[in-house]
Amino acid sequence: MKTTKNLVLCALFAALITIGTYIKIPTPLLPLTFQTLFVVLSGLVLGRKYGAVSVCVYVAAGLIGLPVFTGSALSPTFGYIVGFIPGSWLAGYIAEKFKPCFLTWTLGALAGIAVIYALGIPYYYLMSKFYLQNELGAKTLLVYFVLMPMPGDIFKSILAGLIMKRLNKMTGK
Predict the structure, then answer these.
(1) Domain range list for the chain
(2) How confident is the model over 104-145, as pLDDT tens digits?
(3) Across-strand partners of 24?
């Protein structure tokens, strides 16, 4: 029974990640999407194993052609999508290994997003340089791919911590 419940929750989070991809809130710097929020929440809620499985389901759905990505596997941003898997896993690992509290969940979410950056930015650079023939400098990468999205990602990490706090209160954990 527990396995069935976990598989259903994995499917639910794969769907939430897809929905989060298409929710865009305009901000002065970049549009804010909720894709990474649901990626880190999958790890925080389901744990490292099933969180990563839910993201793998999302990635597999996109790779077989279902319209879950806003781009394609040849898009320079695909490295971020690949980073979702270890990002979810790390958020879940931190949630499992440390005291369950707002700070743990928020830091777990931030760590998961840092992994997404760590895989997404080099992939973007390589795709731009070798596939698109448009090499980006270090300053451009830092400004556009770290500094500009960082406020939104910090907000989403805090939101993930608040959601987990509420979920734990509701479930009595």
Answers:
(1) 2-171
(2) 999 999 999 999 999 999 998 888 888 777 778 888 888 888
(3) 33
